[in-house]
Amino acid sequence: MAMSSVKIGKRPSVITLTDRAVAKVAALLAEEEGAEGLFLRVAVAPGGCSGYSYDMFFDSELAEDDITATFGDVRVVVDTASAELIKGASLDYSDSLSEAGFHITNPNATRTCGCGSSFS
Predict the structure, then answer these.
(1) How many other C-beta atoms are found inside a 10 Å radius of the C-beta of residue 14?
(2) What is the pTM of this model?
(3) Cα angle at 23 between 56 and 40, to 5 degrees?
(4) How far apart are CA 13 and CA 7, in angstroms?
(5) Rounded to 5 degrees, what are φ and ψ at 68?
(6) Would you list the DSSP string of 52-83?
(7) CA distances to 1, 2, 66, 67 from 7, in Å
(8) Rounded to whole angstroms, how far apart are CA atoms 98 and 95?
(9) Do residues 89 and 108 make contact, with C-beta atoms less than 8 angstroms apart?
(10) In what order do the strands lie in the sheet with 118-119?
(11) What is the pLDDT of residues 52-111, one digit of tens each?
């Protein structure tokens, strides 16, 4: 009887955070009252000028099928429906004069709008 081997590894993250994004999220979490148990939820919702929009907020309720990843001290959670739309995306943070805030780079987006928070 032939044996086949199966490589078991860590499932790749749905979304990755840059070091700048991790630092900013950690700083924002530190400002939250009762931050223990809070994580960053990244979701996609219907709407926006291109069809879907990104939503990010601190959450404490974890669903059984949520996908989690940890970057430093920051835990990020994505629901399975959103995961299909942002698989392979990265979250960055910029604080320059020309561009400030969080920005998601999503390889699955075929079109984005000028606001940067809507895609299709």
Answers:
(1) 22
(2) 0.77
(3) 25
(4) 17
(5) -120, 150
(6) EEEEEEEE----TT-EEEEETTEEEEE-HHHH
(7) 19, 16, 23, 21
(8) 8
(9) yes
(10) 67-71, 74-78, 39-46, 52-59, 118-119
(11) 888 999 999 999 999 999 999 899 999 999 999 999 999 999 988 777 899 899 888 776
